[in-house]
Amino acid sequence: MERFMKKIIVFLFISMISFVKGDEVSKIKMRELIKQIKTQSKEKILVPQNGTNIFFNGDKLDMEFIKNVDGVSQESLFYGVGGINEATPEDEKNYLLKNLIEIEKEGKVVFSVNYANDKKLRGKILKDTEKYNFVGEAVSSYSANSIFQPLQKNSLKNVTNLKEVKNFLYLLNPEKFKNVDDYYRVLKNTDFDLLIIEPSLNGKFLTKEQIKSLKIRKNGTRRLIIAYFSIGEAENYRGYWHNSWNKKLPEWIVKENENWEGNFIIKYWSPQWKEIIRNYQKKLDDIGVDGYYLDTIDTYEQF
């Protein structure tokens, strides 16, 4: 339910922050957290979602910081800010595109997550994403809780880096599945080039063996598995959450996000949160995912 609520209101959140640059000190602190993640697992793929201003100093791309990531992702670039199947307003789209085009020019893969379930829009979304050399999908609902038909055919070759990806699954809320094993079986039956997924269900993670199996498609070729990883907000359904926090929040947890039930704005630079991030990252490394899909990096704009 928490993930469902998160996706339902995402278009409202994007509308509110699209034109906010955020405090420079807060931006630097978020950059430091991302650098920490990269340093801990240098070989892992990093794909931050939204908040692309973090890669810029004014209007100029920070050429050193951009080296820490392999790609970026943007929700509702062409469709989804105002509702499912609704085109993103031109001014907001162009604002987002300005950053994304510069990032793509530096060899970073840009993923476009659009919210649309109208089959008539599929061709338009594909055309828009190909125009800018992005990789896009039409996700059928804000809950991101189901398998959908990719816009492009799956690669028949091994996919071992982001530049080889032609399509991707975006499944962040597996609440529909009976258990983690049922979740695994459904994922195994897909042939997407890239799986961007929540790696757990009801507190139980996909196993190392299951992740290893998911990396091989039915046709025998390799694909990539990238795990959802919220680094700018604490989520009260995660294993790191203490029951005592429900009564009294620790000093480094600021408040509950009024738009996202169960998600809490945090002082992401605090030693306590950085330790939580290290431990959660180690868990992801232990199960063998190829990389992390870094969400809520735009929390820095709240400070």
UniProtKB/TrEMBL annotation:
InterPro entries: Aldolase_TIM, GH, GH114_TIM-barrel, TM1410-rel
A Pfam family annotated for this UniProt entry: Glyco_hydro_114
Residue span(s) of domain Glycoside-hydrolase family GH114 TIM-barrel: 208-301
Protein name from the UniProt record: Glycoside-hydrolase family GH114 TIM-barrel domain-containing protein
